[in-house]
């Protein structure tokens, strides 16, 4: 039992306390059950009473969400902390405003739980009053006399730890409950950290919805955790608005997304969209790969201007008047008004597709005016529609403002050197233009086997033609790898929203990886966002951090180094004669400990290691299989970003470095995945930067 800083030394008192806390946990669980049953009952009656089908669907969705939100996971505690304010014994009063002097006792948990009379039994960690659980200190107790943290084991309350802030007692990172949480063996997907959010993390989690922030944090400093908890916090505070507009989480790959997928639902947030940036721009299937240099050029921000100009060039000048026959009448719009229509519309700077329709509407209204003058009555809607679709009007539009599809525009640029030259003149060199031009152009956009970089260009084109719907808040993880054009794709979806940008410049592995957050922020349309460092590491043990930090000087980035909270952990770097044999032996040894085992190797070595482990009778999983029962995962180096394993076996660092231009950055990522122990096995000499 952890009882640091508790007032009483009498074990009987402590047992009584624990018994009473357990009773509160039991009654809170029962109360939550009642809340869920009530929601379920409403859900089924809602089905029958709702009026029209739209209302029924909305109500159904809302109720289904509510039922899901109220799910009780018996393996996670309903509350993890308790605050005593002002020394009175009113339990869990919820009626305190932010400026009122708070009194009473509050249990802090993952969601609100109220008793049958509506009195709170557990306060949501995101409620204003819970803030003090994370921020109060001996220097600034914020009215808190005692902060209590609970220790749990699979949902059962096992211990607690008190800090008498009113007496200047404060544990900070010496809390044994925090240490146990950080050092616990990892299995399965990522978990929430609500019980142990640290003050500097909490400041980011609770930043205003209006504030865009950028977090530069060394490996394992909790960036992902902060981003996810911020999403949950903002949803709590701005529920209606954000449910309407949506919250988006962008991550580096699907393995990562499945690793983090359970965190928000565990916090009761079930309606957040999670996507890779590739999936975000997937208007066309990606069926081809191209060389890095061409892809890098397509990700260059100059391509945005090339595309903008390519569209602008489509807009022509009228060369003849429009003549429309309408029964016994003939209407004529002369060149001068047509010029004016085009000029006015151009000046409005609308998306291209919207502009085309605006021109059509203006032409029709000129026709309408003529018709009204002659017939002395307003034409019908049917007449207006007929005019809008009439051949002369459509032909005019097709000449001066032709319909363009995003795929068509990109196809033309990459297939036709003259079209590219016209749009790229002065922006791209001739050599660059030649590099972009297809050697064997596909006949049509439809027949094209697009690359991932083409998809980004097509998304940019689409954004110029029609404005996409935006989200209310966007969290972008591992953001150091975003290209300028990918940033723009995200910016289009967060134009009126704030963003949380998370990353580590030292972990940039893409050819276009960021070297300065201000550039990334500018491409994202948030140049004024503040860049905040996180430097306390919760994952990687100090000895492993020290090894990985040897690489930092060679990575040419300016980032504050991490310091680890973890003094435990093991590091073993050794030369072996047979990598496969040594890996199998290392995995077998690792399996004698608790927790997950990650074998990380250069991508082309993975299959063979997997096979060798299978031959040795060791079941292995792939990185995206988070629900697996297998404790061992074999992961290619390029997929391991953002993931973590208790025991990591890194196989042949030199091969990982040699596999790609930013191989040293990749190795830095790979070496910082270990929670407890890291074994580095090598036959070739270690990369010079690591050998130290
Ligand atoms: N306040 C905390 N309390 C307990 N555990 C924490 C805390 N903050 C972070 N962690 C744990 O530390 C580990 C690393 O966190 P996270 O993955 O969010 O770090 P990161 O900065 O995103 O890492 P990377 O740079 O490798 O992507 C996770 O297991 C997370 O749960």
Automatic annotation (TrEMBL):
Residues 1-22 are annotated as: Disordered. Gene3D superfamilies: P-loop containing nucleotide triphosphate hydrolases. One of its GO terms (cellular component) is cytosol. One of its GO terms (biological process) is recombinational repair. Residues 1-10 have a biased composition (Polar residues). One of its GO terms (molecular function) is hydrolase activity. Residues 196-541 form the UvrD-like helicase ATP-binding domain. ATP binds at residues 217-224. Keywords: ATP-binding, Helicase, Hydrolase, Nucleotide-binding. PANTHER family: DNA 3'-5' HELICASE, UVRD / RECB / PCRA DNA HELICASE FAMILY MEMBER. This is DNA helicase IV. It comes from Micromonospora avicenniae. The lineage of its organism: Bacteria, Bacillati, Actinomycetota, Actinomycetes, Micromonosporales.
């Amino acid at each position: 039992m952890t009882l640091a800083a508790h007032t009483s030394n009498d074990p009987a008192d402590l047992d009584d306390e624990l018994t009473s806390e357990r009773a509160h946990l039991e009654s809170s669980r029962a109360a939550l059950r009642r809340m869920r049953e009530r929601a379920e009952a409403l859900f089924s009656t809602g089905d029958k009473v709702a009026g029209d089908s739209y209302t029924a669907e909305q109500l159904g969705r809302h109720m289904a969400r509510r039922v899901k939100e109220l799910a009780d996971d018996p393996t996670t505690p309903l509350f993890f902390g308790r605050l005593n304010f002002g020394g009175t014994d009113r339990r869990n009063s919820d009626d305190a405003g932010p400026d009122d002097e708070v009194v009473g006792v509050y249990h802090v948990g993952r969601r609100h739980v109220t008793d049958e009379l509506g009195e709170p039994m557990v306060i949501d960690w995101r409620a204003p009053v819970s803030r003090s659980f994370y921020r109060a200190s001996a220097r600034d107790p914020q009215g808190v006399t005692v902060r209590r943290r609970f220790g749990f084991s699979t949902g059962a309350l096992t211990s607690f730890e008190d800090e008498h802030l009113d007496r200047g007692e404060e544990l900070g990172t010496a809390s044994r409950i925090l240490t146990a949480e950080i050092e616990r063996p990892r299995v399965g997907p990522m978990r929430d950290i609500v019980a142990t959010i640290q003050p500097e993390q909490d400041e980011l989690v609770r930043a205003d919805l209006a504030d865009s922030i950028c977090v530069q944090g060394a490996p394992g400093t909790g960036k992902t955790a902060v981003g996810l908890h911020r999403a949950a916090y903002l949803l709590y505070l701005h529920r209606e608005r954000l449910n309407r507009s949506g919250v988006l989480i962008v991550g580096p790959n699907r393995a990562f997304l499945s690793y983090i997928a359970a965190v928000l639902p565990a916090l009761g947030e079930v309606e957040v969209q999670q996507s890779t940036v590739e999936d975000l721009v997937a208007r066309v299937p990606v069926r081809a790969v191209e060389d890095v240099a061409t892809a890098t050029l397509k990700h260059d921000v100059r391509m945005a201007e090339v595309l903008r100009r390519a569209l602008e060039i489509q807009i022509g000048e009228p060369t003849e008047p429009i003549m429309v026959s309408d029964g016994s009448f003939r209407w004529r719009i002369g060149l001068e008004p047509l010029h004016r229509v085009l000029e006015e519309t151009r000046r409005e700077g609308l998306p291209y597709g919207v502009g085309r329709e605006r021109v059509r509407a203006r032409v029709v209204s000129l026709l309408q005016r003529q018709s009204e003058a002659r017939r002395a009555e307003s034409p019908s809607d049917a007449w207006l529609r007929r005019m809008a679709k009439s051949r002369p009007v459509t032909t005019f539009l097709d000449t001066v403002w032709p319909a363009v599809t995003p795929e068509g525009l990109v196809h033309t640029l990459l297939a036709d050197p003259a079209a590219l030259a016209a749009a790229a003149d002065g922006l791209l060199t001739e050599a660059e233009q030649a590099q972009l031009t297809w050697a064997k152009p596909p006949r049509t956009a439809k027949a094209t086997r697009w690359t991932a970089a083409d998809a980004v260009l097509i998304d940019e084109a689409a954004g110029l033609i029609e404005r996409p719907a935006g989200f209310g808040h966007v969290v972008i993880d591992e953001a150091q790898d975003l290209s300028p054009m990918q940033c723009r794709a995200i910016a289009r979806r967060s134009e009126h929203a704030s963003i949380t940008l998370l990353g580590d410049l030292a972990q940039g592995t893409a050819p276009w990886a960021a070297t300065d957050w201000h550039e990334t922020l500018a491409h994202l349309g948030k140049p004024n966002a503040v860049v905040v460092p996180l430097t306390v590491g919760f994952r990687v043990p100090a000895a492993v951090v020290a090894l990985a930090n040897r690489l930092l000087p060679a990575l040419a980035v300016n980032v504050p180094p991490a310091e680890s909270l973890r003094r435990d952990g093991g590091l073993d770097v050794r030369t072996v004669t047979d990598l496969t044999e040594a890996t199998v032996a290392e995995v077998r040894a690792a399996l004698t400990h608790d927790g997950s085992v990650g074998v990380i190797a250069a991508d082309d070595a993975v299959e063979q290691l997997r096979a060798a482990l299978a031959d040795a009778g060791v079941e292995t999983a792939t990185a995206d299989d988070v629900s697996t029962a297998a404790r061992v995962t074999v992961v290619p180096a390029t997929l391991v970003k953002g993931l973590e394993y208790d025991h990591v076996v890194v196989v042949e660092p030199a091969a990982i470095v040699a596999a790609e231009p930013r191989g040293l950055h990749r190795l830095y990522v790979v070496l910082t995945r270990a929670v407890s122990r890291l074994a580095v096995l090598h036959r070739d000499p270690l990369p010079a930067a690591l050998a130290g």
